[in-house]
Amino acid sequence: xxxxxxxxxxxxxxxxxxxxxxxxxxxxxxxxxxxxxxxxxxxxxxxxxxxxxxxxxxxxxxxxxxxxxxxxxxxxxxxxxxxxxxxxxxxxxxxxxxxxxxxxxxxxxxxxxxxxxxxxxxxxxxxxxxxxxxxxxxxxxxxxxxxxxxxxxxxxxxxxxxxxxxxxxxxxxxxxxxxxxxxxxxxxxxxxxxxxxxxxxxxxxxxxxxxxxxxxxxxxxxxxxxxxxxxxxxxxxxxxxxxxxxxxxxxxxxxxxxxxxxxxxxxxxxxxxxxxxxxxxxxxxxxxxxxxxxxxxxxxxxxxxxxxxxxxxxxxxxxxxxxxxxxxxxxxxxxxxxxxxxxxxxxxxxxxxxxxxxxxxxxxxxxxxxxxxxxxxxxxxxxxxxxxxxxxxxxxxxxxxxxxxxxxxxxxxxxxxxxxxxxxxxxxxxxxxxxxxxxxxxxxxxxxxxxxxxxxxxxxxxxxxxxxxxxx
Length: 472
Description:
The chain is α+β, with helices and mostly antiparallel strands. It is 31% helix and 24% strand. It folds into 3 domains: 6-155, ATP-grasp fold, A domain (Dna Ligase, domain 1, 2-Layer Sandwich); 162-258, D-amino Acid Aminotransferase, Chain A, domain 1 (2-Layer Sandwich), CATH 3.30.470; 265-463, Phosphohistidine domain (Glucose Oxidase, domain 1, 3-Layer(bba) Sandwich). The protein contains 14 helices and 20 strands.
C-alpha cells in the first residue's frame, strides 16, 4: 500500500522522493548502511508518507497552529513502539534535493512525549509547506512547489556529550558542535588523515570515570564515519551530517543531506543580483551580519602578490619566457592596471634582486595609506589580509567590510580582524586565471553591494566606476 508507514530498515530502493521525501530517502539509505556496517547508529524511526487520509483543525492558542487527525490508529500504534521522546521532522519531495536544500524552511519539533503532541507537531509541519517564507524561497530559486509533505518520527538521542553538524567539503571535514553545557566547538580535519585502516576496526571503550568531553580518538572516528557514509551513499561534493555522540559509544547520525552544487546565497539573503555582473558568494564568513553599498578599494597583499604572479605565469618570477597564462592575464585582467598591483610588482622585483627590505615595507605601507584615503568608507577587496605585514590592516582604517578573493579560511587574519572591528567579512578561494572571476573584473572605485547573515555572504558590482579615483 503506497501510503502505509515506512519503518527504518526497509529497502530504500522501493521508494522515491515523492513517497518519503528527500530527507526521508537519505535517512533510509543511511539507516541501511549503518545496519550493514555497524560503524554508527541511526535512531529508530518511521515515515508517514504524503498519501495518508487526514483532516486538520486550527488551534491558534497552541504552539501547534494546526492539529492533524489521522483516519486510523496505524500511526498511533507506530508511535507507541518508539522510545520517547521523539523528534518530528519534515520530509518534502524537494527537500535536500539537487536544486535546493530547503534547510530550516519547514517546521520541526523535539521532545515529543505523547500522541497528542505528535498530532500537533505533525499538523504544524504539514502547515509549514504553505508558509509565505517557503513560497518566497521557492519562487526565488525558480522551484515549483508540488506534492504533499511526508513526516519523519524518530527516537531522540538524549545521552550525549556533544551534538552538531559535520560538513564534508572539497578539502576536508568541518565539525561545528555544542556540548550539554553550551560550549561550542569548531574544527577541520583533512581527508588524508581519515585514510587510516585502524579506524575501520576502532571500537569505543567505556571508562569507569565520569567523562565530560569526547576523546581525540572518538572525534577522529566520528569524522571517519561521516566520511564513509557520504562516500557510500554517493552524496558528494558538499554534505552535512547531523550527529550526537556520547562517551564510549559509536556516534548517532540522525540526518544526512546533500547541499546543492550551486547554492544561490542571494536567494537565502533576499538579494537580487543583476544579470551579467561579477559577483561572489561564500559560506566562509565571520559571523557579522549586515548590508551596505560602498566604493571598493582593490589591492593586493605582500605575500599574496607572489601567489598571483606564480599562478598567472609572470616573467618576473625568473621564467625565461612568459607562458600563455601571463599573456591572457595581462590582456584581460583589470588587476594588471590596478595602481597597487603595478607598484607592488615592481617592489617585488626590487626585493627579489636584493633591495632594501625595510624600505620596501615602508613603500607598501605608503601605498595602502594612500589607497585608504581615496574614500571615507569602502569595501576592502584583496587577495588576502597579509599576516606577515600587519601594516595592511592598520593602514586601512576606512574599510567597512572585507572580501578576500584568494583565501577562504574561517580562522584567517581577515576574519579575525573583521570580527574584532564588527564588520562583515567573506572569503573565497578563487581562480586567478579565470578572467571572468570577480577579482579580475572589479576595479577601485566600483560600487560594491554586499550582504551577509553571518553564515553566508554575497558581494557584487552594483555600478562600475565613472573614473579612476587615482587620477585626480
